[in-house]
Amino acid sequence: xxxxxxxxxxxxxxxxxxxxxxxxxxxxxxxxxxxxxxxxxxxxxxxxxxxxxxxxxxxxxxxxxxxxxxxxxxxxxxxxxxxxxxxxxxxxxxxxxxxxxxxxxxxxxxxxxxxxxxxxxxxxxxxxxxxxxxxxxxxxxxxxxxxxxxxxxxxxxxxxxxxxxxxxxxxxxxxxxxxxxxxxxxxxxxxxxxxxxxxxxxxxxxxxxxxxxxxxxxxxxxxxxxxxxxxxxxxxxxxxxxxxxxxxxxxxxxxxxxxxxxxxxxxxxxxxxxxxxxxxxxxxxxxxxxxxxxxxxxxxxxxxxxxxxxxxxxxxxxxxxxxxxxxxxxxxxxxxxxxxx
Length: 341
Description:
Blueprint: E1 4-5, H1 6-13, E2 16-18, E3 24-25, E4 27-28, E5 38-41, H2 48-53, E6 58-61, H3 63-66, E7 73-75, H4 79-89, E8 111-112, E9 117-118, E10 123-124, E11 129-130, E12 135-136, E13 141-142, E14 147-148, E15 153-154, E16 159-160, E17 164-166, E18 171-172, E19 177-180, E20 185-188, E21 191-194, E22 201-203, E23 208-209, E24 214-216, E25 223-225, E26 230-231, E27 236-237, E28 242-243, E29 248-249, E30 254-255, E31 260-261, E32 266-267, E33 272-273, E34 278-279, E35 284-285, E36 290-291, E37 300-301, H5 310-321, H6 323-340
């Protein structure tokens, strides 16, 4: 089991130490459930009461919250970021694969760099390139002409269709499908005619894609997901979408085709973004929001209503339907008042 002293962690995080710098930390935990040998964090003042009761050996804490706390601590501006970095150092997640399993199907045209690991029942297509230290979990299918960058991990049962390129240090979780056909059809007198989806998918470095998420291939040009993007579980990215650097999209969200989402955006869970629009850099979309038009100014956008008693919700729904009629009546009254004056 890996462990670090408070002094070592302080040097890594750029934190100040309060207490025993030789104290060893072997894992992380919450304030409420931490035990000896564990490091916890206080990132929200509402959990301050738990700080006094925690059994953790040390706490990541901000200078503002340090007053009155006499225990072992690493003091830094953002304790939650510090927690994330320490959690990475002490991560015990196993590898997606070790070595190359005998049951894997690998054609002679595939190129495997040093340190590649491939699990049981993996099928690799023609002309695939796997860079250094790539891990392919059991049951994955990698289509022809795919390229996977160094250090990228695919967990069990991921499917990459043909002509999908993944950058370095990506994580693709189980049952994700990348490069399936987009929803492209023409209608001729009621009959749907399929449009072949001849584009690919291009994914940058340090991208994480959640379980059962789908990223469709482009219709003609490539679907693009840029560096640092994180997609939660069960997210739909349609054909020809472009997702800008370091944007985060939470679970069950759907991005329709040919939409361009900027850099550093946050899209809350269960949101839906219409096709053929763009969203400017730095936009925050609240959970459950439907975005149907271009967003040109960064900010927080919301279109949901809060949960309420069903009877009240029914009355409000009726009133919402009457809103236009009410508006027209008010407009008429204003016009009448202006005429009289």
